[in-house]
Every structure is written in C-alpha cells, then in structure tokens.
Amino acid sequence: MDVQILLYDGFDELDAVGPYEVLANGLQHADIDGTVRTVTCDEPGSVTASHGLQIESDGRLATPDLLVVPGGGWTEPGPGARAEYDDGRIPTRLAELPERTTVMTVCTGAMLAAKAGLFRERATTHAVARDNLAATGVNVADARVVDDGVVSTAGVTAGLDGACYLVEREFGPAIRDEVLREMEYEARADVLIA
What we know:
Elements: E1 2-6, H1 13-30, E2 35-40, E3 46-48, E4 54-56, E5 59-60, E6 66-69, H2 81-87, H3 89-95, E7 102-106, H4 109-115, E8 122-123, H5 130-134, E9 139-140, E10 145-147, E11 151-153, H6 158-171, H7 173-183, E12 191-193
Parallel strand pairs: 1-2, 1-6, 2-5, 6-7, 7-11, 8-9, 10-12
Antiparallel strand pairs: 3-4, 10-11
Helix pairs in contact: 1-6, 1-7, 2-4, 3-4, 6-7
C-alpha cells in the first residue's frame, strides 16, 4: 500500500505528522507491505511548515493508494492552504487522481479538495473555513470525520481521528486498537459516513 502525505510550504505540522504516524503504525501492525512517504507537487526538497518545522520530502506526488492532504495557513497571509488554493496547482493535481486513490483531507486541506471537485456532497473542515467550504457548494457537516468517498476531518487534531478511522476501515478494529494502544491515544468516534 502506497500512502503519500502531500506537503507544501505553510502546511500545519500536526495535520501531516499525526496521520503519518497513525498510518505507518497501521501498516506495521497489519503486516501490510507498504510505505508512508512525504511528497510534494514539485521536485523533492525542503518544505517549511507553518510553525517553522522543515521537512525533506521523499518524492513527488504520484498515484498513491491513499493521499493525505493537510491544511494550515488558511487565514494568514503568506504560504499555506489559501496560497495553494489561489495558485491552483495542487487542486489541479488532485482532480487528476484516479478514483481508486483514497483521499483524506485534514483541516483546511478540505478547501484544496473542494476546489478540485472531489467531494460528492458532504465534508468537514476547521471552523475558520466552514463558510468558505459551504461557498463551494459542499454541505458542511458538524462532525469530526466525514466519509463521502473522500474522507475529510475537522481542525488539526481531527487528522488523528481520520487516520484511525482509515486504519479501522482498511485493516479492521483489532489493528486500530493496537495502534491506539501503542500511541496511547483515545480516538473520537464522531464519524459521519455519507
């Protein structure tokens, strides 16, 4: 299973790193042949997150089995999801993914998926972008995790819950429980399947 975490300047650290750890642990506990990698739309290189963390990406976005799209920087000037939304390259690339690719958005990463036209009907995002998401024609759900074909999560820490949901969906509740025990995390069960 090829899992890719899409990075861009200004992404929120926890939006990417939290799901990375949950999904990597899920693959390990399920004994699934696969990798979790960080990718960019551009050539691999250093990416600076919203709080200054620098991460070297592992490669360029290809056609993964699962893609995590973090948010961050929606309300601030400078790099982040808003700048990527306005630039349009990431939404264009998301729109080109085949239907077999599962996409999970974290926080305002939902805005990039909305611009790509990925949501069928419902989604969630961080509270600061709910009105923006509704303006794209998506019904905004008051839920921590929404599975509408695309899995969307509310703000920041909800990415952990979305990743736990995907581990359970793909590998079963026993594997999810092993991951939760290892991480000493109590996932919230607020999942809306649309």
